[in-house]
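ok so I'm stuck.
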Amino acid sequence: MNTTRDRSKVGTLLCLSSAIGYTAYNVCLRYASSRLDPSWINCVQSSVTVGVFGVYLAWQAARGRRVLPPRNELLALLIISLITQFGNILFVWAMSVVGVAVTSTLQTGVMLGASAILGLMVLGERVSGRQVAAIVLITVSMVFFSIGAQTTGEPTVGRWLSLTVVLAIAAAGLAGVAFALLTVGVRKTVTSNASPEAVVFLISTMGVVAMGPWCIFRIGLPTLCQTPAADLGVMLAAGAVNLVAFLLVTKSLQMISVVRFNVLNNGLTTAMTAAIGVVGFREPWNGLLLLGMVMAMAGILMISVEAPAG
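replied:
not stuck anymore, here's the structure
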C-alpha cells in the first residue's frame, strides 16, 4: 500500500515537473516568436531532440536492436511528422500576433476536442456527452478570443489588424488539429515495433530536414548565420525543456492514471502559460478574452477528466 502511494506521489511530482517544462517551452517560443521566423525557430529547437535521441538510437542499433518502425509505418510517420511541423509553425506565428496566453489555451483545447472527434472517426472510440459539451465550449471560446483580441489593438490600424487576428486565432486552432492528427495518427499506424523515442526522433528530424532547407531558401544562409547568440540560446533551450518534459511525461504515465495526468498536465500548463503571458509579457487582456479563457479551460478540464472508454 505504501509502495503504491509512494509511486503515486512520485508520478504526480513528475507530472507537475513536466507541466513546468512545457510552460517553459511555451515561454521560450513566445520570446522567440517576436524576434525570429517561425520556421527557423522550429528547425533549431527540433535539432536538440534529433541530436540527443539520434545518439541514443544509434547506440541501440549498435547493440543489435531495431530502432525504426517497418517501412509502411515509417512512411505514415513521416507524413504525420510533416503535418506536425506545419502545426508548429502556425502555433509560433499565432503567438506573435495574439500572444501565448490565447494561443496556448486555444491550441490545447482544440487539440483535445479534435482528438475526440478523430478518435471517433478513425479509431471508433466513444465520444461522450461531456466531450461533446466540451467541444462546444471550446468552439464558442474561439469567437470570444477573436472578438476580444481585436478590441485590444489600436483603433487606427483598421481592418488589416482584424484580419490578422482572425487568421492568428484560426492558426492556433489549426495547430491544435495538427497535433490531434499526430496523436490519433500515431495510435492508428504505429505498433509496438516503434519506441516512443523513435517516434519523437522522426518527428523532430522532419522539423530539421524540411524546415532547414526552406529557411535557407527563403531567408538566406548569411542571414541565418547572423542570428544573435542569445536568440539561438532561447531556441535551443526550448528544444531542451521540451525534450526533458517528454521524458518526464513518459515516466509519469507509468506511475499515475491517464485521467490524473491529463488534469494536472493540461490544466496547469495552460493556466501557468496564460498567467505568464499576461503578467510576464504584458499581453493585453479584457473581459471577452477572459470569458474565452474560462470557457476553453472548462472544456479542457471536461475532456481531461473523461474516463477512458471501455
